[in-house]
Amino acid sequence: MANRGDKRESILDAAVRVFARSGFHHSRVSEIAREAGVADGTIYLYFRHKEDILIAIFEEKMAGVIVKLREELELVSGAEARLACFIEYHLTQMSRNRELAEVLQVELRLSNKFMKEYVPIRLTEYLDIIAEIVQEGQKLGQFRPELNPAIMKRAIFGALDELSMHWVLTRGRRPDLKVSAAQLSDLFLRGLRQTEAPCIAVEDLTSRHDGSVPTLTGGQT
Amino acid sequence: MANRGDKRESILDAAVRVFARSGFHHSRVSEIAREAGVADGTIYLYFRHKEDILIAIFEEKMAGVIVKLREELELVSGAEARLACFIEYHLTQMSRNRELAEVLQVELRLSNKFMKEYVPIRLTEYLDIIAEIVQEGQKLGQFRPELNPAIMKRAIFGALDELSMHWVLTRGRRPDLKVSAAQLSDLFLRGLRQTEAPCIAVEDLTSRHDGSVPTLTGGQT
Amino acid sequence: MANRGDKRESILDAAVRVFARSGFHHSRVSEIAREAGVADGTIYLYFRHKEDILIAIFEEKMAGVIVKLREELELVSGAEARLACFIEYHLTQMSRNRELAEVLQVELRLSNKFMKEYVPIRLTEYLDIIAEIVQEGQKLGQFRPELNPAIMKRAIFGALDELSMHWVLTRGRRPDLKVSAAQLSDLFLRGLRQTEAPCIAVEDLTSRHDGSVPTLTGGQT
Amino acid sequence: MANRGDKRESILDAAVRVFARSGFHHSRVSEIAREAGVADGTIYLYFRHKEDILIAIFEEKMAGVIVKLREELELVSGAEARLACFIEYHLTQMSRNRELAEVLQVELRLSNKFMKEYVPIRLTEYLDIIAEIVQEGQKLGQFRPELNPAIMKRAIFGALDELSMHWVLTRGRRPDLKVSAAQLSDLFLRGLRQTEAPCIAVEDLTSRHDGSVPTLTGGQT
DNA sequence: CATGAATGAGCATTCATTCAT
DNA sequence: CATGAATGAATGCTCATTCAT
Predict the structure, then answer these.
(1) Which domains are seen in chain C, by residue range?
(2) Using the CB atom, is residue C10 less than 7 Å from strand E?
(3) Which of A37, D26, D56, D185 has a Cα-to-Cα distance from A111 of 20 to 30 A?
């Protein structure tokens, strides 16, 4: 524990373990302190309150996830492949680190501050990666231009998140996330994809819902 | 307030107002009691804990939603139209009752008991309606049989839920849910739909992920 | 349950069982009501409050005890034999009815009202029986006149009560109350008894403590 | 209030005053805190529950009483004189500190935990001092060997306790404890004492109760 | 007399946070 | 920087008792 960063880090790591073990609300700050090997008061030199730790876990871990995610995406070319890569990466993270997944999926959502006050910079960044991929696909003519990337990013993230949540909350034999990833990729890629020879049915459908032309972004971002 | 049901109902209604106004954690049981016009103790004749009220709100309101949803679905024929109907119905509910939406989307998730101990019967039922529609489409040859309904239901619900959450949490000008519904319908229907003449690309995609044949349900239900 | 007396009686009996089982503080009035087969409110037609039941148990049961005790004492003649009879009778009651003994020895003392507000008519009566025996012995020249019956009655009752309490609170193999009775009789009779030829030592002792003559009643009654 | 011990002590002293004034059940923890000049929470750094304070008062004060009692007993020689000393000491304590006596005699007994869960180490120690004196007297041939010290200690303590309780609960002119002490000493010493020339009557009495020889200890300790 | 739904007073305890050292 | 003893706000829930029927 040579420098400031290390102590902060050890508190965060301790918190992940404690939160995963006891849940956020039942975790005592003093327990995190003990687990981290520091005094109670020391924690307040690095974090403003208990929920700050939770949010810091999210920010810090998400930052790492995003960096690695971008690296993965670099290795793949084409919007389709990249989206599939994103989906698989997201779900793969779950099984990589059970404790962290538990904290990010469940405990984080139990925090008032996170849900209501916090502006999730990293989450926005994460979602925007999806939007970027969608836009890239649209630019290259692979994905349909009439689909609003701001809505697509939430649809795709929502699907991933729901499946992740289900996986984390499942006791006993968990669903195979490989299969889930394959299915979601299949579903979303087909949904997004530009049909070489657009069928009449598609046009009908689109018009049936809002009667508007491809630029139906609805102002959402 | 003639009978038992009425008193219970008035407590639930009061709770929705109070929870939406102050948030679950900051709501005092005594405030709910005052708002409902009963004594504090009376609440405990109908509910075991404060969180019980929250869960009852969910169960009760969902039960109503499900009944009306099924009625709506009766009016529409064909898996495609029914899925579109479902999606629109889900998002439409949000704007119908802001207070209730706030409670169900945000406050409910802040409850430990709900997230961890509660077995969400109504939610399961709700999700299964999606699965039924998907299966119906598969049976009729409209939707691709290789897609696992148990995964699809979560993907679709997750997307709806994420967009709902975003809508509820947005301060200021909210996204147009009509547009969101249209986009989601478009996305998912295309994703699910059986292409008359399956393109080679699709087969490639499927095989790329798991190399298996259409029945990749992965044992998930 | 033909008449008023019966219902009152059944409530008292139920209360003894419930108090012995759960302790006074943990016993719910509603539980006593259920056990007695009456409605909660009915109890308040016969008793003013919960502690009233406890005190009524004491009064009622003591009344019976006193009646039978007096009958027993009638059969014996002589102050010495009567005191021995009293002692044995008191301790014998314990093992007769475990539940009642538990309630009278332990639960009753846990009641604020009993300890502080209640004027224990029956207990006074009970104690006075001891005093009467002592006075009888003094009148007949069997017991020493310098001993104050008002103090003796408390000394003897206190000894009996402490041994009873110990017996009730003992888990496992309980002390043999027959032996205790024999020892107490031996102790107190010797202590009270007029020695034909008073030894010098006794006079020394008495004078050592207060230097007064035999009539040291100290005004206590 | 320089150190830890002082703070604990001031809480105990405050508690004695508050308990004596309002009774244990009606005393608020916050009132004790105010009286002691500490925060409510501070009390829980030194005691686990409210009842813990009560029990600590007993343990702590009894420890002091026992120490001083042993000192007093050192000054006196002979089992007889020592028993008389014990009796006088016990009753003298009452009038020394009215508040403490009130708490130890009345409030303490109103505590469920004290009566049922607590193992009274100090009380046992206190009782055993009586037993030791009795045994000493028996060894020296002053007290009758057939009397079981384990029963005697409870008889003597019970008598003292009953007289103490009566004294504490008496409103108005209280009995003179000096007189009570003298009477009890007289009673018990005569009861215990070995008669130089045992009268026939005594043997009769002993045999009347159990027909056994002097070793009737009944296994009690 | 009997009921039992409704009442509402009452408070110990926890634990995040602070700050003097 | 680090400590950890001290703080004190904050409230859900129980259950004896009532009283309209």
Answers:
(1) 1-47 (1.10.10.60), 56-197 (1.10.357.10)
(2) no
(3) A37
